[in-house]
Fold this protein.
Amino acid sequence: MVESLIPEGVEGLTVSFDGKTIRSTGKMEKYTKPMHIVSAHIAEMGITFGQQTVYEKSNEIPAVRELLELLELNGCIVVADALNCQKETAKAIIGKGADYLLSVKDNHKFLKESIEGHIQDESFQKEMGTKETCEKNHGRVEYRKAFVAHNIEWLPGNESWEGLVCIGAINTQFTIKNKKQMNGTITSQAGS
């Protein structure tokens, strides 16, 4: 198993869970719909160390939870997209001795709006941690500003997310050939 490639005692690895559609299966006669595969990828090592096949995108949430049960994640941080921003998934991650960073989008509209409103309030920004980065590649400039708030008592329902200790957001701006192309905010919440 790939877990045997991980040196003992290594903690703090980032394990990302993501589902992808295997497009070629949509053209095969034996499949009525394209297959999907959920993978657990170790970012720092560039390897996939777990996979689960599902037959519909809607089955990705339970597949991630099944994969969580199979893998040793103690001391890791688990990252997942908005589809997997679920209270039960957060609970399963904490149960494996890991922390989480889950993206919040319109599937949790009230939560997303609450986080964005807090992050954008200048009076709250003074107590938040921030980090700015700027990358320049092939005529494209990407500027990011990240915000993290550890005081989450104001967040409605925060106690129902096991292990939740902070929230954050990343504001991203792209400039291509001196023209601003996009400005967006990705909101996230983090476990212990």
Summary: Residues 105-192 form one domain. The longest strand covers residues 179-190.
